[in-house]
Each structure stands twice: as C-alpha cells, then as structure tokens.
Write a structure and sequence with these properties.
This protein is mainly alpha-helical and about 300 residues long. The chain is built from 14 helices and no strands. It has a domain of about 210 residues.
Length: about 300
C-alpha cells in the first residue's frame, strides 16, 4: 500500500524543519538584546516543557540519565551545547541563508568522521554529493573575495558539532531510551551555555524579547519531537529531503523580516548546496526502490503459487 504525505513521516519532517527555521529566526531577532549563550541556554529550559509528550507511560523521568554508554551521552550533550551556542551566534551575525548553507556542511563532516574514525565504507555517489555541497559552500564564502569573520567560523563549528552528535546517535544504537536521547540535548545547553552566560546574562525586558526567547527554545525542542516522530514511522532517507525546506524558510525570513537580500553568488552557492543534498537523496531512493523490486521479483520466482491469480 502506498503511503501518503500524512502517513509517510514527510509531513512530520516538514513540521519539524519549519519549527527549526522559525526557532532560528527567533534567535536572530534577539541579536543586540541578549547574550547568545543566554539565548542558547533558554533552549534547554523551555525544552523541558516537552518531556511529558516524549515520555512513554512506562518510562520514569530518571531515564533522562539512563544509558549503557555514558561516554556517548556526554558526547551528545557536549555536541548539542557547542552546536546551539555556535548556531545562535552564526544566525545573529550572518544572513540566515548564508549561515544555514555553511551548516549544511554537516554531511561532509559526517562522511569524514565515518571514514577516518568509524572506518566505514563510503560510496562514490556519497563522495560526489559531499563534494558538490562543499563546492557550493566555497561559492558562498568566496575565499579571498570577501571577508571571513566570526559568523562564518561559528556556522562551520555548528556543522562540525552537529556531525559529532549524529555520529554519537549512531554509536548509541537503537537501545537507548528516548528520554536519554532527548535529555542529553537539554542538559548540554543548560550546563555549558549556563556557565558561559554567567558574566554576561541580563534579565529579558519587554514582551517581544520574552516571546522571541520562548519561541527559540520551545520551537527548537518541538522540532526535535517532530523529527523523532517522523523517524519512528519512516526511514531516515525519506525524511531527509524536507531538510532543505529550511532554506526556503531562511530565504523568505531574510528578505521579508530582516531585509537582508542575497547577492547572486551567494544565491548560486545556496542552490548548489541544496542540489547536492537532493542528489544524495535521489540516489538513495533509487537504490531502495531497486532493492524492493529485486525482493519482489525473487519472492515471485520462489513462490509462484502465492502470486498466481485465481482462475
């Protein structure tokens, strides 16, 4: 039976990435009002509001710390802390599409880590997709033709931290409790950003600042919840393509909300980065469809009586 957009996990993924994009816009809107580390800290605070919706009825809240591999829990927490702090600073300092295009370097870093540390085999098509994405990032940055500043560094650091988080989830396996996976992403920003904001923190003033702060923290956690739900009903490759809907949101927010238009070279680089991800998704989709077709053909060949039509 063919799955529609509502049952395939794609809609949940679209909602998740939309929540992430609006959360990023909220963090950018707080530039000049609050310290970036204080904004990232709020992500851990408001994220606790979603714990009752993530926890199963048979799960105690103490499962937040339950793990058979404490090293992986700590790695996820540290990676989330670094990625949230760096991404908030990147969005505050750069136009949203430019920051996001650099954060799309994450697959490049995941591939490098997979080959060098995990000793995994990577196909030619994966390298091609990663290489095209890296070319798109170079078009956005244009080394030597424009200034390279702290915002670019923060976006690249966020991509590297997100890649480390992806690897830690992979190494943790499927046996880790959901609360444990989600809890590490809360305590990382709470502890790390909480320590860094101590000397710079200030009490938020005004309804607008409070609304943006809540929007950043709550929507970031809500996006994680939607993504957990999406991957529970669909394979990861099916929910990967909607990630690039974030770029649509980012371009729209950049023009409409922050009045930061893109130059032609940056726009071209963003298109190249987006197409690189779509290339890898299309390759995986064709591969899985071919495998499914071969499986059906083998089943019909080995069980002809089951597939024969009744007379």
């Amino acid at each position: 039976m063919r799955q529609n957009i509502f049952s395939s996990g794609i809609l949940l993924a679209l909602l998740g990435y939309a929540a992430f994009a609006i959360s990023d816009a909220c963090s950018k809107g707080l530039a000049g009002h609050l310290d970036p580390f204080e904004v990232a800290f709020s992500g851990g605070v408001f994220g606790f509001l979603l714990l009752p919706f993530i926890r199963r009825s048979d799960e105690p809240y103490s499962d937040i710390f339950a793990t058979n591999r404490p090293g992986m829990w700590i790695l996820r927490a540290v990676s989330t802390f670094v990625s949230t702090a760096a991404s908030v600073m990147a969005f505050m300092l750069l136009p949203m599409p430019e920051a996001l295009s650099l954060m799309f370097l994450m697959p490049f870093f995941v591939t490098i880590i997979s080959v060098t540390i995990l000793k995994e085999k990577v196909s030619f098509w994966t390298w091609l997709s990663v290489g095209i994405g890296f070319l798109g990032v170079l078009i956005v940055l244009r080394p030597g033709a424009r200034a390279f500043h702290l915002g670019h560094v923060c976006a690249i650091v966020a991509a590297l931290a997100n890649a480390s988080s992806v690897v830690s989830y992979r190494l943790a396996g499927d046996k880790s409790a959901r609360l444990s996976l989600f809890g590490s992403s809360l305590f990382g920003p709470l502890i790390g950003d909480g320590l860094l904001m101590i000397t710079h923190a200030s009490w938020p003033h005004g309804l607008r600042v409070w609304a943006l702060l809540f929007g950043y923290g709550f929507l970031a956690a809500l996006g994680q919840l939607f993504m957990m739900m999406a991957t529970a009903v669909a394979p990861a490759n099916r929910v990967a393509l909607p990630q690039y809907s974030q770029m649509v949101w980012a371009v729209a927010f950049s023009y409409l909300l922050f009045h930061q238009p893109l130059d032609n070279w940056t726009f071209m680089g963003i298109i190249v980065v987006t197409l690189s991800g779509m290339l890898n998704w299309i390759r995986q989709k064709l591969r899985f469809e071919r495998m499914a077709l071969e499986e059906r053909w083998e089943h019909r060949h080995n069980h002809p009586a089951e597939t024969a039509k009744p007379s």
